[in-house]
Amino acid sequence: MSEWLTPFHYEYMVKAILVSGLIGGVCAFLSCFVTLKGWSLMGDALSHAVVPGVSLAWLIGLPFSVGAFFAGVLAALGMGWVKANSRLREDAVIGVVFTTFFALGLLLLTLYPSNLNLRTIIFGNILAISDPDILQVLVISGLSILVLGLKWKDLMLYCFDETHARSIGLNTRFLHLLLLSLLSATAVAALQTVGACLVVAMLVTPGATAYLLTDRFGRMLWIATGTGAVCGVLGAYVSYFLNGSTGGCIVVLQTAVFLIALVLAPKHGLLAARHQRHLAASSS
User: Fold this and answer.
1) Domain count, the chain
2) Which of 15, 62, 80, 248 is the most exposed place for a label (fewest CB within 10 A)?
3) Is 178 left (phi over 0), alpha (psi -120 to 50) or beta?
4) pLDDT (0 to 100) of residue 197
5) For the CA atoms of the chain, what is the radius of gyration?
6) Does residue 1 lie within any of the structural domains?
7) Which helix (H) or strand (E) holds 202?
8) Which residues contact 197 (CB under 8 A, 6 or more apart)?
């Protein structure tokens, strides 16, 4: 029994477990809106587009989170501008803009070598998270939860039916920018945990899992947030015994839960669909 408690004997593991759970929950809350809006590629794009912001922030002496946040917002605005002024489809626009930002970040990091470790940005390193970084995560997470808690109904309507939201007087342009800003800020906070490569999984998978399990958005928020937080805590805890990547463990757990839901979901799972087809064939 004492062996199972070993991770809690180390301060760095306790910090990693708590921060992973917090980030997992916040990302999962936001993932419901990302899933409903169909912005899975946007999450991937923003998580990679923050890299040049990290490099520029180091060059001018700012906290890397500030540069990463503004780079993410700038990339999102750039996607919107290119989409509005070209014939390109949205997936092509996202691909062009985010790879440009990511390449620019790599170029800056090689031209101006710094104490920033590219591997840490790409893959994360939650076990080495510092107290200032934890404070940064707490502030970003707290603000994101507060804004989402206050505006979730407006954001839900905007994501579900933008035309209807506009017709009843909601400022859809503001909600669009608000959701992009929250997505950028949360991606920055999650970089420490899983890195730019895997943060998109935390911003999509819990919402996709909950979407399979319920038809009510309020319930979807609770399921996704609980799934994200529990997988964050368990992933960090299990990574100690496996001596493996913490981010990898968290995302693999989230994927396992998604696959279980995909098969066993009461109404939208594969087994339920097979049962419904069998009933339809029998009745005909």
Assistant:
1) 1
2) 62
3) alpha
4) 66
5) 20
6) no
7) helix 172-213
8) 47, 122, 123
